[in-house]
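User: Quick sanity check before I run a bigger batch. Here is a single chain. Can you write out its predicted 3D structure?
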Amino acid sequence: MSYYFRPPNSREQNLYIIRFSVDDLSDNNFVAGTLKNTAYTSPAKVFLPADFNFTYNNDNSYFELNYINAKYEIPPTVNIILKNGNTNENITYEVSIISVTETVTRFEIYYHTVEEDNGFVFKKNYPDLLGGGLTNIGVQVQIIGRTKTGPTFAIANQGWTYVESTSASNDSIYSSMKVGTNGVVPPFGLTVGGSYGYFGGAGNGNTPSTTKLENYTVTEVYNNINNYHFFPIKIENNEILTLPVVETANIGQEIFLLLNQITGQKTLTISKDNTNMGANLALDTIGDSVKFIALNNDDDGARWVKVNNK
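Assistant: Done. Predicted structure follows.
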């Protein structure tokens, strides 16, 4: 499996870990030099980075781990431990790491033996060695290193990082937290790829806008009354807003209506229907506002209760 973490005693951030086990490196578990997906025992291959590969180079007799999609910033630390499943075999196996880069690790497997003429020697072993090769011989692998990507399996916005503090306390950590959307690598603190819009309390009638915040029309207020809290309203004619019947699921909801834009001398009338008001309420000046809370009353049932400031 693979995951991110940042230990409290480390100055490195976004440490990306890959770990897995293989119990049998025999030739039967390789196809054209690549380890079969079914040979990964803990965890399954699906939990490793995309396109992760464990291969064997027959020409040079070494193994190779390809983790290019982990996107390590510098060569990671690689730990490989041999597992011997042959309980009756009195042979000691060793692993020798040849090289480690940001994308690939190469290693060899040896075993100890005693020869009549040469005494105690090391011999290289590989999957297709005559006589069984590495049958029941496996590995446990752990790869850990720093990556610039965010915490979403090495495909995040490629911009989150920590920087050292210039204050007297060298342990102060700040995050630049650069964020990019729509697949862009962010050159700024926030880089928006593609268009953007506003939804909700800021108000634009549930219509995306790439330029400015819009106001709600009376119809838009009615259609979105159960979705948002704050409604800046514009009117071009004398209009009436009748609040919808309060649904049981919306008991406790608050709404704030503010007259924000008027064309000429016009009036927005809030109908008393479905409210506790005894008469209609008129808003005719920019800044006029009213607040309602959806509440239940034993006698009147659920309705919009106008909040009075005293």
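The first strand starts at residue 2 and ends at 5.

User: Great, the batch can go ahead then.
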